[in-house]
From TrEMBL:
<dbReference type="GO" id="GO:0003677">
    <property type="term" value="F:DNA binding"/>
</dbReference>
<keyword id="KW-0539">Nucleus</keyword>
<feature type="domain" description="DNA polymerase alpha/delta/epsilon subunit B">
    <location>
        <begin position="186"/>
        <end position="395"/>
    </location>
</feature>
<dbReference type="Pfam" id="PF04042">
    <property type="entry name" value="DNA_pol_E_B"/>
</dbReference>
<dbReference type="Pfam" id="PF18018">
    <property type="entry name" value="DNA_pol_D_N"/>
</dbReference>
<protein>
    <submittedName>
        <fullName>DNA polymerase delta subunit 2</fullName>
    </submittedName>
</protein>
<dbReference type="InterPro" id="IPR041863">
    <property type="entry name" value="PolD2_C"/>
</dbReference>
<dbReference type="GO" id="GO:0006271">
    <property type="term" value="P:DNA strand elongation involved in DNA replication"/>
</dbReference>
<comment type="similarity">
    <text>Belongs to the DNA polymerase delta/II small subunit family.</text>
</comment>
<dbReference type="InterPro" id="IPR007185">
    <property type="entry name" value="DNA_pol_a/d/e_bsu"/>
</dbReference>
<dbReference type="GO" id="GO:0043625">
    <property type="term" value="C:delta DNA polymerase complex"/>
</dbReference>
<dbReference type="InterPro" id="IPR024826">
    <property type="entry name" value="DNA_pol_delta/II_ssu"/>
</dbReference>
<feature type="domain" description="DNA polymerase delta subunit OB-fold">
    <location>
        <begin position="39"/>
        <end position="166"/>
    </location>
</feature>
<dbReference type="InterPro" id="IPR040663">
    <property type="entry name" value="DNA_pol_D_N"/>
</dbReference>
<keyword id="KW-0235">DNA replication</keyword>
Length: 436
């Protein structure tokens, strides 16, 4: 438990920030054995092995314990069976090493695109021994590679497997919420995108509001109830591309810009952590490892902020329990990747699919870079959180999941919107705050 007893003073009132309990569960995303000698196939094998038990529970619930579950190699004739496996999505527009080769040899490159789906994409189901093309009642455009699934159907004369119904792994409901008896808030923000001195003013104004330096009585009362701030990645902006006709020696300038941005970020965060607890996650453009799960930003990058016990560098993805409310989220790379490889365009719809699939990053490692885990897959969702968020979304959004048990939150890029989201831990209500 970290007490936050910063007082907010003005001419008429004094507000005291309440304390909150905090348990960080990011250890599951820490990479302990850093080795890249093994193949990525082991990750798919581990994912299927772990998910099989969860799928079997859902099979029993959906089709009964007498369901005819078989491996692909054991199917005979056109018998109706249930098959457990991993989906592979065949896509003509999937990025390929051929593009790099064509660039190298000055050949005609593949077209540059951020959407890789076509109407003739199709799905293949793989178990640990065999694979088969799927058809029937399963939509290729709303599925991606890496999903574990159980399909009910039969083999057609063409050799394809006709899907009548399908289900995803069973995910346990959230634990009972021990929510606070008073209003307490968690601020969710992402995408400061600092580039040197640009974009500082809105961030500084936000910090001044949270720390009680500006605002009227109502503002100060509201922000005095904030017990934690979660910064969901991309605190540093994307590096500017150097002109091709400039000397390569100018590469040092890009590094100095990043260092300058980090120094400014450290100063800003140090003001914030003097008043409230802060968790800062790495993002796509931050100076951290590129592979998921991204490891915490090094504390040495924050010489001022790291002096405070209220400053926490955490992983991406992120998991923690704040006053009994379980948070799970990412800086947004997983959502962005699924939007590119499916027809699911709305971030909240993607997040709903992830909850349905029981997996945060099914497209890793196929199209989303990740660490080659051997006997585990930390991205599997075996129990629903109370709050599921993604950072750096193209637009703000929030709603409860289909089963009404999970508050899903798409955090917009702060640089583009000047918007942060305040979550009430007592009610799970979300309030957008525009910093002008």
């Amino acid at each position: 438990m970290i007490p936050n007893n910063q007082s907010f003073c003005n001419d008429t009132s004094t507000y005291v920030r309440p304390s909150s309990s905090y348990i960080c569960n990011c250890n599951k995303f820490l990479v302990q054995d850093l080795t890249f000698e093994r193949q990525y196939a082991t990750l798919y094998t581990s994912r299927l092995r772990i998910s099989t038990e969860l799928l079997q529970r859902q099979i029993n619930k959906k089709w009964g314990p007498s369901a005819n579950v078989k491996k692909l190699c054991d199917i005979t004739g056109d018998e109706k069976v249930v098959v457990i496996g991993t989906i592979f999505k065949h896509m003509e527009l999937h990025p390929s090493i051929l593009k790099e080769i064509s660039d190298e040899h000055h050949m005609v490159p593949e077209p540059v695109t951020e959407e890789y789906t076509k109407e003739d994409d199709f799905l293949i189901l793989e178990d640990d021994l065999q694979r088969v093309v799927l058809c029937g009642n399963i939509d290729p455009q709303s599925n991606v590679t890496g999903i574990n699934v159980a399909v009910l159907g039969y083999t057609e004369e063409s050799g394809k497997f006709f899907v009548e119904e399908y289900c995803h792994p069973s995910v346990a409901d959230p634990e009972i919420i021990y929510s606070p008896s008073i209003d307490k808030y968690v601020v969710l923000v992402s995408g400061f995108s600092l580039n040197g001195n640009s974009g500082i003013f809105p961030v500084q104004l936000l910090i001044d509001y949270i720390t009680g330096q500006v605002g009227g009585n109502e503002d100060q009362k509201k922000f005095s109830q904030v017990v934690r701030v979660i910064i969901a990645g991309n605190s540093i902006g994307k590096e500017k591309k150097r002109s091709s006709n400039k000397s390569k020696l100018l590469a040092r300038k890009v590094k100095s810009e990043t260092a300058e941005s980090m120094a400014i970020l450290d100063r800003l965060i140090s003001e914030l952590v003097s008043s409230v607890s802060v968790d800062i996650m790495p993002g796509e453009f931050d100076p951290a490892n590129h592979l998921l799960p991204q490891q915490p930003l090094h504390p040495a990058m924050f010489p001022k902020s790291s002096k405070y016990a209220t400053f926490n560098v955490v992983t991406n993805p992120y998991e923690a329990v704040i006053d009994g409310i379980r948070f799970l989220g990412s800086s947004g790379q997983n959502v962005k990747n699924i939007r590119a490889f499916s027809k699911i365009t709305e971030p909240l719809d993607v997040m709903q699919k992830m909850l349905d699939w029981g997996h945060m990053s099914p497209t890793a490692p196929d199209s989303l870079n990740c660490y080659p885990f051997l006997n585990e897959d930390p991205f599997i969702i075996s129990q629903y959180p109370h709050v599921y968020f993604c950072g750096n979304s193209p637009k703000m959004g929030y709603r409860f999941s289909d089963n009404k048990s999970v508050m899903m939150i798409a955090i917009p890029e702060f640089q583009q919107t000047n918007c942060v989201l305040m979550l009430n831990l007592r009610t799970l209500e979300v309030q957008p705050i525009i910093v002008l």
